[in-house]
Amino acid sequence: MIKTEDLDYAIERTLSTHPEFLPHMNGILLSQVNEGINLLRFTRNGGAREKIAQMESDDVIKYILHESIKIFNAASYFYYHDQKICNLPSDREKIKYLLEVFPCFGDLQNMMSTLANKDINASLYLKGNSNDLLSLINATLTTRFKSGTSYRDYVDRYGKGQTVVPSGEVLDLFAKVDGDIEKAQIAQNVRVNHRSINRCLGDLMSGVQLKNKRNEYVLEGSLYATQDIGNHRSNQEDTTIILTHPANPEFKLLAVSDGMGGVEYGDKASTYMLQKITEWFNQLDPDFFYYPNELKSAFQQRISQISTEIYNLYNADYNRIISGATFTGAIVTKEDTIISSVGDSRAYITNGPSLELLTRDESVVWPPGRTPDEITKQELDDLRFNKKNNVIARCIGLENLKSVQSRIIPNASYDRLMLFTDGITDLLSTDRIRFIALNTPAEQLTKQFVDEALLFDAVRIHGGSQEYNASIAAGKDNATAVAYIRR
User: Fold this and answer.
1) Which residues have C-beta within 8 Å of that of residue 396, sequence separation ≥ 6?
2) How much is the pTM?
3) How far apart are alpha carbons 236 and 239 in whole angstroms?
4) What order do you get walking across the sheet with 416-420 strand by strand?
5) 335-346, pLDDT tens digit by residue?
6) Which of 135, 213, 231, 427 is deepest in the core (most CB within 10 A)?
7) Which value, in Å, is the radius of gyration of the alpha carbons in the chain?
8) Domains of the chain (ranges plus CATH)?
């Protein structure tokens, strides 16, 4: 990465050479992040362009974050140590004077509070939230290049200490930002959808998704996801993604992956699987939107390739699977939706009053040769109580995943598309899934599935036996539900 002072120099030289650029510099820096680096926006004078020849979008974000933290720290120092403020009789007057001198302090205070959250990756957050990024750019440029040299010197002198965030906690936000930038490198090939904030994308790519007890996501009013660690698990091994293609918001990806229980690195397999399928989808030629058959083949191939990559990373040196996961994903194209699955995470659709299972559980208890259409509701509901139900026959993480179950369905054939890990389908009967799917508002749908899986035990009508459990404890596993609402 280039040094932040090199970008500062390039901006200063550009504005010195072209002072008329100042009103446009906010947009120039924002475009460097959102649309890619364009060095032609900076002057050649004084070697400015040469200094930033290797600049990347993360360099811009790091510069803006560092300067914003310095301004916030300098404003805080000003509040507690400036003689004029100290002589004012009330806190209200002190704050009023602070805002006169540092008019951007209110916005910065809110942002510092957000970025101080240990589970927020500052780099990915700002890539997905152009409004907050623009606010920080404006605060930086106004302070450094519009307020005069003495003001800039004040920030440089007093803005380098630790940050006191609104909670009163003292933090070294510079170190956190540097760490966030480094962690975000895994997402360097992902073009973030800037039409709305995709927190699901940021959490997945930064690893935050696995650290939270519960995650709730929404994107563009049609894609929803909810996850919970469950009542009896100490770690999260489910991952999920909801995403629209950078070039076409109608081109969508939704997926779940469940790390295999009983193996050491199930969480690593599920995370790697969805991170890599996300990178692949974001780099897809947008013309695939019109060619579902070709996309289906490419989708299957990439799933198999990722499985082999996980095998080589974790399993190749062992005689057993130590890193494995399920995968169920859907890609929505212009007229059709592609569903692909490995393992026992499921996909369902509703069409009017009906509910249809689209995927076959690749588990040892699924009746051999039976398709989802051929298994009865009673058989399906009884499978979840089988003591071997969670023993899957195929998983992501195998060296040669020769086939991936996959199908294409017309978009017109469904109202709602739902993906679940077994933390949902082991607890909810087919009738209950159908009832929730048909009677729950879109914005509450995935939450309702997860909440019911956490609150109510599943009880087998026929009782227990040597082969079957009599009941399944509520929240016995991580639970993830994802939905795409067409109408």
Assistant:
1) 257, 269, 270, 273, 303, 306, 307, 310, 324, 325, 326, 327, 342, 343
2) 0.66
3) 8
4) 214-219, 223-228, 479-485, 416-420, 346-351, 354-357
5) 999 999 999 999
6) 427
7) 26
8) 4-183 (no CATH), 191-485 (3.60.40.10)
b/e sequence 29-50, b meaning 16+ C-beta within 10 Å: bbbbbbeebeeebbbeeeebbe
Give the model's confidence band at 186: pLDDT under 50 very low, under 70 low, under 90 confident, else very high: low
pLDDT of residue 120: 77
pLDDT, tens only, 276-297: 999 999 889 999 999 999 999 9
